[in-house]
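User: quick one, sequence for these C-alpha coordinates?
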Protein backbone atom coordinates (compact mmCIF):
# COMPACT_ATOMS: atom_id res chain seq x y z
CA UNK A 1 0.00 0.00 0.00
CA UNK A 2 1.24 3.50 -0.83
CA UNK A 3 1.02 6.41 1.61
CA UNK A 4 1.60 10.15 1.31
CA UNK A 5 3.35 12.17 4.04
CA UNK A 6 2.67 15.90 3.89
CA UNK A 7 3.99 18.72 6.12
CA UNK A 8 1.35 21.45 5.83
CA UNK A 9 1.32 25.27 5.90
CA UNK A 10 3.89 25.69 3.11
CA UNK A 11 3.24 28.69 0.84
CA UNK A 12 2.67 27.25 -2.66
CA UNK A 13 3.73 29.32 -5.66
CA UNK A 14 4.93 28.78 -9.22
CA UNK A 15 3.21 26.91 -12.06
CA UNK A 16 1.10 23.73 -12.14
CA UNK A 17 0.57 22.36 -15.68
CA UNK A 18 -2.77 20.59 -15.98
CA UNK A 19 -2.86 17.22 -17.79
CA UNK A 20 -5.41 15.80 -20.20
CA UNK A 21 -8.84 15.01 -18.77
CA UNK A 22 -9.11 11.58 -17.13
CA UNK A 23 -12.87 11.44 -17.81
CA UNK A 24 -12.29 12.07 -21.49
CA UNK A 25 -9.24 9.85 -21.94
CA UNK A 26 -10.99 6.86 -20.33
CA UNK A 27 -13.66 7.06 -23.05
CA UNK A 28 -11.33 7.91 -25.96
CA UNK A 29 -9.10 4.88 -25.36
CA UNK A 30 -11.93 2.28 -25.73
CA UNK A 31 -13.49 4.37 -28.54
CA UNK A 32 -10.25 4.00 -30.55
CA UNK A 33 -11.10 0.38 -31.40
CA UNK A 34 -13.96 1.65 -33.59
CA UNK A 35 -11.37 2.91 -36.12
CA UNK A 36 -10.29 0.53 -38.90
CA UNK A 37 -6.81 2.03 -38.79
CA UNK A 38 -4.22 3.58 -36.45
CA UNK A 39 -5.26 6.48 -34.22
CA UNK A 40 -3.00 8.89 -32.33
CA UNK A 41 -4.30 10.54 -29.18
CA UNK A 42 -2.14 13.22 -27.55
CA UNK A 43 -2.28 14.88 -24.14
CA UNK A 44 -3.28 11.55 -22.54
CA UNK A 45 -2.75 11.80 -18.76
CA UNK A 46 -0.20 9.34 -17.31
CA UNK A 47 -2.45 7.88 -14.59
CA UNK A 48 -3.26 4.34 -13.53
CA UNK A 49 -6.76 4.50 -15.07
CA UNK A 50 -5.36 5.00 -18.57
CA UNK A 51 -2.77 2.26 -17.94
CA UNK A 52 -5.58 -0.16 -17.00
CA UNK A 53 -7.52 0.59 -20.20
CA UNK A 54 -4.39 0.13 -22.35
CA UNK A 55 -3.99 -3.28 -20.69
CA UNK A 56 -7.47 -4.21 -21.95
CA UNK A 57 -6.61 -2.92 -25.44
CA UNK A 58 -3.47 -5.12 -25.52
CA UNK A 59 -5.52 -8.10 -24.27
CA UNK A 60 -7.80 -7.57 -27.28
CA UNK A 61 -4.80 -7.51 -29.64
CA UNK A 62 -4.57 -3.75 -30.20
CA UNK A 63 -0.98 -2.49 -30.59
CA UNK A 64 -0.34 0.22 -27.99
CA UNK A 65 2.59 2.63 -28.22
CA UNK A 66 2.87 5.22 -25.50
CA UNK A 67 5.38 8.04 -25.95
CA UNK A 68 5.10 10.35 -22.89
CA UNK A 69 1.61 11.93 -23.26
CA UNK A 70 0.80 10.49 -26.69
CA UNK A 71 -0.81 7.15 -27.40
CA UNK A 72 -0.58 5.50 -30.84
CA UNK A 73 -3.20 2.72 -31.04
CA UNK A 74 -3.32 0.26 -33.94
CA UNK A 75 -6.53 -1.79 -33.84
CA UNK A 76 -5.93 -3.67 -37.13
CA UNK A 77 -5.18 -6.98 -35.36
CA UNK A 78 -7.96 -6.67 -32.77
CA UNK A 79 -9.99 -9.73 -31.73
CA UNK A 80 -13.44 -9.52 -30.14
CA UNK A 81 -12.79 -11.63 -27.02
CA UNK A 82 -14.62 -11.69 -23.68
CA UNK A 83 -13.03 -9.16 -21.33
CA UNK A 84 -12.32 -10.96 -18.03
CA UNK A 85 -13.20 -9.51 -14.64
CA UNK A 86 -9.60 -9.10 -13.43
CA UNK A 87 -9.11 -6.52 -16.20
CA UNK A 88 -12.52 -4.82 -16.25
CA UNK A 89 -12.89 -4.44 -12.47
CA UNK A 90 -9.90 -2.07 -12.20
CA UNK A 91 -12.09 0.89 -13.16
CA UNK A 92 -15.72 1.60 -13.99
CA UNK A 93 -14.85 3.23 -17.30
CA UNK A 94 -14.11 -0.26 -18.66
CA UNK A 95 -17.83 -0.21 -19.47
CA UNK A 96 -17.04 1.95 -22.52
CA UNK A 97 -15.76 -1.26 -24.14
CA UNK A 98 -19.40 -2.41 -24.12
CA UNK A 99 -20.48 0.43 -26.41
CA UNK A 100 -17.33 0.28 -28.54
CA UNK A 101 -17.31 -3.50 -29.12
CA UNK A 102 -21.09 -3.54 -29.66
CA UNK A 103 -20.78 -0.68 -32.14
CA UNK A 104 -17.95 -2.40 -34.04
CA UNK A 105 -18.94 -6.11 -33.90
CA UNK A 106 -22.62 -6.05 -32.82
CA UNK A 107 -21.51 -8.27 -29.92
CA UNK A 108 -19.66 -7.82 -26.63
CA UNK A 109 -19.10 -10.13 -23.68
CA UNK A 110 -17.53 -8.77 -20.52
CA UNK A 111 -17.61 -8.96 -16.78
CA UNK A 112 -18.56 -5.64 -15.29
CA UNK A 113 -18.66 -5.32 -11.50
CA UNK A 114 -21.24 -2.69 -10.62
CA UNK A 115 -21.15 -0.08 -7.92
CA UNK A 116 -18.30 1.61 -6.13
CA UNK A 117 -17.82 3.38 -2.83
CA UNK A 118 -19.56 6.63 -3.78
CA UNK A 119 -22.78 4.96 -4.82
CA UNK A 120 -24.64 2.08 -6.46
CA UNK A 121 -23.83 3.50 -9.91
CA UNK A 122 -26.12 1.24 -11.94
CA UNK A 123 -25.76 1.03 -15.75
CA UNK A 124 -29.46 0.61 -16.52
CA UNK A 125 -29.48 3.68 -18.81
CA UNK A 126 -26.52 2.33 -20.82
CA UNK A 127 -28.33 -1.00 -21.28
CA UNK A 128 -31.62 0.71 -22.14
CA UNK A 129 -29.79 2.57 -24.90
CA UNK A 130 -28.25 -0.63 -26.29
CA UNK A 131 -31.67 -2.35 -26.29
CA UNK A 132 -33.23 0.64 -28.09
CA UNK A 133 -30.63 0.13 -30.84
CA UNK A 134 -31.75 -3.49 -31.21
CA UNK A 135 -29.40 -5.37 -28.89
CA UNK A 136 -30.37 -8.31 -26.67
CA UNK A 137 -28.79 -8.39 -23.24
CA UNK A 138 -28.15 -11.47 -21.11
CA UNK A 139 -26.71 -10.96 -17.64
CA UNK A 140 -25.50 -13.58 -15.18
CA UNK A 141 -24.39 -11.76 -12.03
CA UNK A 142 -21.58 -9.43 -13.21
CA UNK A 143 -21.22 -11.04 -16.65
CA UNK A 144 -22.92 -9.29 -19.57
CA UNK A 145 -23.46 -10.50 -23.13
CA UNK A 146 -24.86 -7.79 -25.44
CA UNK A 147 -25.62 -8.87 -29.01
CA UNK A 148 -27.57 -7.58 -32.02
CA UNK A 149 -28.44 -9.05 -35.42
CA UNK A 150 -28.43 -5.49 -36.63
CA UNK A 151 -28.01 -2.13 -34.86
CA UNK A 152 -30.65 0.35 -36.01
CA UNK A 153 -30.82 4.04 -35.14
CA UNK A 154 -33.42 4.93 -32.48
CA UNK A 155 -34.78 7.82 -30.43
CA UNK A 156 -33.44 7.38 -26.90
CA UNK A 157 -34.53 9.47 -23.92
CA UNK A 158 -32.23 9.36 -20.86
CA UNK A 159 -34.17 9.51 -17.58
CA UNK A 160 -31.02 11.12 -16.10
CA UNK A 161 -28.42 13.09 -18.08
CA UNK A 162 -25.84 10.36 -17.48
CA UNK A 163 -22.30 11.05 -18.75
CA UNK A 164 -21.44 7.37 -19.13
CA UNK A 165 -24.71 6.39 -20.77
CA UNK A 166 -24.51 9.32 -23.23
CA UNK A 167 -21.00 8.33 -24.32
CA UNK A 168 -21.67 4.58 -24.38
CA UNK A 169 -24.77 5.02 -26.56
CA UNK A 170 -22.78 7.27 -28.93
CA UNK A 171 -20.15 4.52 -29.27
CA UNK A 172 -22.79 1.89 -30.02
CA UNK A 173 -24.71 4.10 -32.47
CA UNK A 174 -21.96 5.54 -34.74
CA UNK A 175 -22.12 2.55 -37.14
CA UNK A 176 -25.80 1.66 -36.62
CA UNK A 177 -28.11 1.81 -39.63
CA UNK A 178 -29.93 5.13 -39.76
CA UNK A 179 -30.30 7.97 -37.30
CA UNK A 180 -30.10 7.95 -33.51
CA UNK A 181 -31.27 10.83 -31.32
CA UNK A 182 -30.22 10.96 -27.66
CA UNK A 183 -32.52 13.25 -25.69
CA UNK A 184 -31.68 14.62 -22.24
CA UNK A 185 -28.06 13.81 -23.10
CA UNK A 186 -25.31 14.87 -20.67
CA UNK A 187 -23.53 18.10 -21.73
CA UNK A 188 -20.13 17.64 -20.06
CA UNK A 189 -17.10 18.89 -22.09
CA UNK A 190 -15.72 15.34 -22.13
CA UNK A 191 -18.70 14.28 -24.26
CA UNK A 192 -17.83 16.94 -26.84
CA UNK A 193 -14.21 15.68 -26.81
CA UNK A 194 -15.37 12.11 -27.54
CA UNK A 195 -17.84 13.20 -30.24
CA UNK A 196 -15.09 15.24 -31.95
CA UNK A 197 -12.80 12.18 -31.86
CA UNK A 198 -15.47 10.02 -33.53
CA UNK A 199 -16.20 12.72 -36.12
CA UNK A 200 -12.45 12.93 -36.86
CA UNK A 201 -12.74 9.19 -37.71
CA UNK A 202 -15.63 9.95 -40.09
CA UNK A 203 -18.65 9.61 -37.82
CA UNK A 204 -21.59 11.97 -38.23
CA UNK A 205 -22.47 13.33 -34.77
CA UNK A 206 -24.07 16.71 -34.15
CA UNK A 207 -25.31 18.43 -30.98
CA UNK A 208 -22.66 17.12 -28.54
CA UNK A 209 -22.56 19.53 -25.59
CA UNK A 210 -26.30 20.14 -25.85
CA UNK A 211 -29.06 17.96 -24.41
CA UNK A 212 -29.94 16.56 -27.87
CA UNK A 213 -27.29 14.59 -29.76
CA UNK A 214 -27.96 13.32 -33.28
CA UNK A 215 -25.93 10.46 -34.82
CA UNK A 216 -26.21 9.39 -38.46
CA UNK A 217 -24.73 5.88 -38.76
CA UNK A 218 -21.78 5.36 -41.16
CA UNK A 219 -20.20 2.20 -42.63
CA UNK A 220 -16.52 2.77 -41.86
CA UNK A 221 -14.42 4.77 -39.42
CA UNK A 222 -10.83 5.62 -40.32
CA UNK A 223 -7.74 6.33 -38.25
CA UNK A 224 -7.19 9.89 -37.06
CA UNK A 225 -5.30 12.25 -34.78
CA UNK A 226 -6.94 13.68 -31.66
CA UNK A 227 -6.15 15.62 -28.49
CA UNK A 228 -7.55 15.16 -24.96
CA UNK A 229 -8.98 18.38 -23.48
CA UNK A 230 -7.43 19.68 -20.23
CA UNK A 231 -8.72 18.08 -17.03
CA UNK A 232 -11.19 20.54 -15.48
CA UNK A 233 -11.35 18.48 -12.26
CA UNK A 234 -7.57 18.36 -11.79
CA UNK A 235 -7.51 22.11 -12.57
CA UNK A 236 -10.30 22.79 -10.06
CA UNK A 237 -8.53 20.76 -7.40
CA UNK A 238 -5.34 22.85 -7.79
CA UNK A 239 -7.40 26.07 -7.81
CA UNK A 240 -8.84 25.04 -4.45
CA UNK A 241 -5.34 24.19 -3.16
CA UNK A 242 -4.24 27.64 -4.34
CA UNK A 243 -7.14 29.28 -2.48
CA UNK A 244 -5.99 27.41 0.66
CA UNK A 245 -2.22 28.03 0.50
CA UNK A 246 -1.30 29.66 -2.83
CA UNK A 247 0.79 32.76 -3.45
CA UNK A 248 0.09 33.85 -7.04
CA UNK A 249 -0.09 30.17 -8.01
CA UNK A 250 -0.48 29.71 -11.79
CA UNK A 251 -2.74 26.87 -12.96
CA UNK A 252 -1.67 26.49 -16.59
CA UNK A 253 -3.05 24.75 -19.74
CA UNK A 254 -6.75 24.95 -18.84
CA UNK A 255 -10.08 25.93 -20.42
CA UNK A 256 -11.51 28.44 -17.90
CA UNK A 257 -15.03 28.17 -19.38
CA UNK A 258 -15.13 24.56 -18.09
CA UNK A 259 -14.63 25.86 -14.55
CA UNK A 260 -17.20 28.64 -14.45
CA UNK A 261 -19.29 27.21 -11.59
CA UNK A 262 -16.22 26.79 -9.34
CA UNK A 263 -14.68 30.14 -10.27
CA UNK A 264 -17.90 32.00 -9.46
CA UNK A 265 -18.03 30.31 -6.01
CA UNK A 266 -14.35 31.15 -5.35
CA UNK A 267 -14.99 34.81 -6.23
CA UNK A 268 -18.17 34.82 -4.08
CA UNK A 269 -16.21 33.68 -1.02
CA UNK A 270 -13.42 36.23 -1.61
CA UNK A 271 -10.64 34.24 -3.30
CA UNK A 272 -8.39 36.35 -5.58
CA UNK A 273 -8.47 34.78 -9.05
CA UNK A 274 -6.99 36.26 -12.23
CA UNK A 275 -8.63 34.39 -15.14
CA UNK A 276 -6.78 34.50 -18.49
CA UNK A 277 -7.32 32.69 -21.78
CA UNK A 278 -5.63 29.39 -20.87
CA UNK A 279 -4.49 29.83 -17.29
CA UNK A 280 -5.62 31.20 -13.93
CA UNK A 281 -3.52 32.79 -11.18
CA UNK A 282 -4.94 32.18 -7.69
CA UNK A 283 -3.83 33.98 -4.53
CA UNK A 284 -4.88 32.99 -1.02
CA UNK A 285 -6.81 35.63 0.95
CA UNK A 286 -7.80 35.82 4.64
CA UNK A 287 -11.40 35.80 5.99
CA UNK A 288 -13.31 33.91 3.32
CA UNK A 289 -17.11 34.31 3.36
CA UNK A 290 -19.25 31.20 3.76
CA UNK A 291 -21.14 29.98 0.62
CA UNK A 292 -23.64 27.29 -0.32
CA UNK A 293 -23.16 24.82 -3.17
CA UNK A 294 -25.40 22.26 -4.86
CA UNK A 295 -23.77 19.71 -7.18
CA UNK A 296 -25.45 19.46 -10.58
CA UNK A 297 -24.79 18.10 -14.04
CA UNK A 298 -22.68 20.34 -16.31
CA UNK A 299 -22.52 23.35 -16.42
CA UNK A 300 -23.58 23.21 -12.75
CA UNK A 301 -21.10 22.75 -9.91
CA UNK A 302 -19.22 19.48 -10.59
CA UNK A 303 -19.80 16.65 -8.11
CA UNK A 304 -16.13 15.67 -8.60
CA UNK A 305 -15.08 19.02 -7.08
CA UNK A 306 -17.47 18.83 -4.12
CA UNK A 307 -15.03 16.86 -1.98
CA UNK A 308 -11.92 19.10 -2.39
CA UNK A 309 -14.14 22.21 -2.21
CA UNK A 310 -15.46 21.12 1.19
CA UNK A 311 -11.94 21.59 2.61
CA UNK A 312 -11.96 25.24 1.52
CA UNK A 313 -15.34 25.73 3.23
CA UNK A 314 -13.79 24.67 6.56
CA UNK A 315 -11.74 27.91 6.30
CA UNK A 316 -14.76 30.16 5.59
CA UNK A 317 -16.28 32.29 8.36
CA UNK A 318 -19.82 31.08 9.18
CA UNK A 319 -21.98 28.16 8.14
CA UNK A 320 -21.49 26.83 4.59
CA UNK A 321 -23.66 24.19 2.95
CA UNK A 322 -23.05 21.52 0.33
CA UNK A 323 -25.88 19.51 -1.22
CA UNK A 324 -24.69 16.44 -3.20
CA UNK A 325 -27.44 15.64 -5.70
CA UNK A 326 -25.56 13.23 -8.00
CA UNK A 327 -24.27 10.43 -5.73
CA UNK A 328 -25.76 8.92 -2.59
CA UNK A 329 -22.49 8.38 -0.72
CA UNK A 330 -19.97 11.04 -1.62
CA UNK A 331 -19.14 12.47 1.83
CA UNK A 332 -16.66 9.77 2.96
CA UNK A 333 -13.93 12.40 3.47
CA UNK A 334 -15.96 14.00 6.28
CA UNK A 335 -14.89 11.79 9.26
CA UNK A 336 -11.25 12.35 8.33
CA UNK A 337 -11.67 16.12 7.89
CA UNK A 338 -13.38 16.25 11.29
CA UNK A 339 -10.50 14.22 12.76
CA UNK A 340 -8.21 16.99 11.45
CA UNK A 341 -10.28 19.63 13.26
CA UNK A 342 -13.11 20.50 10.86
CA UNK A 343 -16.67 20.95 12.10
CA UNK A 344 -18.86 19.22 9.49
CA UNK A 345 -22.27 17.64 10.02
CA UNK A 346 -24.10 15.46 7.49
CA UNK A 347 -27.85 15.01 7.16
CA UNK A 348 -28.95 12.90 4.18
CA UNK A 349 -27.27 14.44 1.13
CA UNK A 350 -26.52 17.77 2.82
CA UNK A 351 -23.32 18.74 4.63
CA UNK A 352 -23.08 21.77 6.93
CA UNK A 353 -19.59 23.17 7.44
CA UNK A 354 -19.01 25.56 10.37
CA UNK A 355 -15.83 27.61 9.98
CA UNK A 356 -13.18 28.75 10.18
CA UNK A 357 -11.55 25.78 11.97
CA UNK A 358 -7.77 25.28 12.10
CA UNK A 359 -6.76 21.90 10.65
CA UNK A 360 -4.15 19.71 12.39
CA UNK A 361 -2.15 16.99 10.65
CA UNK A 362 -2.84 13.35 11.62
CA UNK A 363 -3.27 9.89 10.07
CA UNK A 364 -6.13 9.65 7.55
CA UNK A 365 -7.20 7.31 4.75
CA UNK A 366 -8.31 7.82 1.15
CA UNK A 367 -11.63 6.05 0.54
CA UNK A 368 -12.13 7.09 -3.10
CA UNK A 369 -10.41 9.24 -5.72
CA UNK A 370 -11.84 12.67 -4.89
CA UNK A 371 -12.04 12.06 -1.13
CA UNK A 372 -8.31 11.35 -1.40
CA UNK A 373 -7.81 14.64 -3.24
CA UNK A 374 -9.69 16.46 -0.48
CA UNK A 375 -7.36 14.93 2.14
CA UNK A 376 -4.32 16.14 0.16
CA UNK A 377 -5.80 19.65 0.12
CA UNK A 378 -6.53 19.47 3.85
CA UNK A 379 -3.02 18.17 4.62
CA UNK A 380 -1.44 21.04 2.66
CA UNK A 381 -3.47 23.54 4.73
CA UNK A 382 -2.99 21.77 8.08
CA UNK A 383 -0.50 22.44 10.87
CA UNK A 384 2.10 19.64 11.13
CA UNK A 385 2.35 16.25 9.40
CA UNK A 386 -0.48 14.29 7.78
CA UNK A 387 -0.13 10.69 6.64
CA UNK A 388 -2.66 9.59 4.00
CA UNK A 389 -3.12 5.84 3.49
CA UNK A 390 -4.43 4.07 0.36
CA UNK A 391 -3.22 6.77 -2.00
CA UNK A 392 -3.62 4.35 -4.92
CA UNK A 393 -7.10 5.92 -5.17
CA UNK A 394 -5.52 9.33 -5.80
CA UNK A 395 -2.98 8.09 -8.35
CA UNK A 396 -5.90 6.87 -10.51
CA UNK A 397 -6.81 10.44 -11.42
CA UNK A 398 -4.02 12.90 -10.61
CA UNK A 399 -0.97 12.74 -12.88
CA UNK A 400 2.40 13.20 -11.09
CA UNK A 401 0.70 14.75 -8.06
CA UNK A 402 3.84 14.43 -5.85
CA UNK A 403 6.08 16.05 -8.48
CA UNK A 404 3.57 18.81 -9.27
CA UNK A 405 3.09 19.72 -5.59
CA UNK A 406 6.83 19.49 -4.79
CA UNK A 407 7.57 21.85 -7.69
CA UNK A 408 5.39 24.56 -6.16
CA UNK A 409 6.88 24.24 -2.65
CA UNK A 410 4.90 21.50 -0.91
CA UNK A 411 6.66 19.16 1.53
CA UNK A 412 5.27 15.84 0.30
CA UNK A 413 6.65 12.31 0.08
CA UNK A 414 5.18 9.07 -1.24
CA UNK A 415 6.07 5.86 0.61
CA UNK A 416 5.39 2.16 0.05
CA UNK A 417 4.46 0.34 3.27
C1 LIG B 1 -18.83 10.19 -14.84
O1 LIG B 1 -19.29 9.02 -14.16
C2 LIG B 1 -17.46 10.46 -14.24
N1 LIG B 1 -16.59 9.31 -14.46
C3 LIG B 1 -17.58 10.71 -12.74
O2 LIG B 1 -16.29 11.06 -12.26
C4 LIG B 1 -18.51 11.89 -12.52
O3 LIG B 1 -18.69 12.08 -11.12
C5 LIG B 1 -19.87 11.61 -13.19
O4 LIG B 1 -19.68 11.32 -14.59
C6 LIG B 1 -20.81 12.79 -13.08
O5 LIG B 1 -20.22 13.92 -13.64
C7 LIG B 1 -16.08 9.13 -15.69
O6 LIG B 1 -16.33 9.90 -16.60
C8 LIG B 1 -15.16 7.96 -15.86
P1 LIG B 1 -23.20 9.37 -14.55
P2 LIG B 1 -20.62 8.27 -14.70
O7 LIG B 1 -23.56 8.24 -15.44
O8 LIG B 1 -20.64 8.32 -16.16
C9 LIG B 1 -26.78 7.54 -12.07
C10 LIG B 1 -14.39 10.91 -10.91
O9 LIG B 1 -14.23 11.21 -9.72
N2 LIG B 1 -26.89 6.58 -13.18
O10 LIG B 1 -23.41 10.77 -15.01
O11 LIG B 1 -20.70 6.97 -14.03
C11 LIG B 1 -25.60 7.19 -11.18
O12 LIG B 1 -25.98 6.24 -10.21
C12 LIG B 1 -15.63 10.17 -11.35
O13 LIG B 1 -13.60 11.22 -11.83
C13 LIG B 1 -27.98 5.71 -13.23
O14 LIG B 1 -28.83 5.73 -12.36
O15 LIG B 1 -21.71 9.26 -14.09
C14 LIG B 1 -25.22 8.50 -10.54
O16 LIG B 1 -26.02 8.71 -9.41
C15 LIG B 1 -16.52 9.77 -10.17
N3 LIG B 1 -28.06 4.81 -14.24
C16 LIG B 1 -25.58 9.52 -11.61
O17 LIG B 1 -26.44 8.85 -12.55
C17 LIG B 1 -27.12 4.73 -15.23
O18 LIG B 1 -27.25 3.90 -16.15
C18 LIG B 1 -24.35 10.07 -12.34
O19 LIG B 1 -23.90 9.06 -13.14
C19 LIG B 1 -26.02 5.62 -15.18
C20 LIG B 1 -25.92 6.55 -14.14
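Assistant:
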Amino acid sequence: MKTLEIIGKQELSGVVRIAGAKNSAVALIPAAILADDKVTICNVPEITDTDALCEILEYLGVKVNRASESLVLDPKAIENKEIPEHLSKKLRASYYFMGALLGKYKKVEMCFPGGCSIGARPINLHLKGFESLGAKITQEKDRYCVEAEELKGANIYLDFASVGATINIMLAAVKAKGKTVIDNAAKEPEIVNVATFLNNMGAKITGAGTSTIRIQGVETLSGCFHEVIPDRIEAGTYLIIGALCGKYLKIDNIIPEHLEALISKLVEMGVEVDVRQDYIIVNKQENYKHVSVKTLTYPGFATDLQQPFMVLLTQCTGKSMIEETIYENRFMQVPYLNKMGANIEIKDRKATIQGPTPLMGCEVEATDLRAGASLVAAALAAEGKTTIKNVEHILRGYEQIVEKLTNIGAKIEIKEI
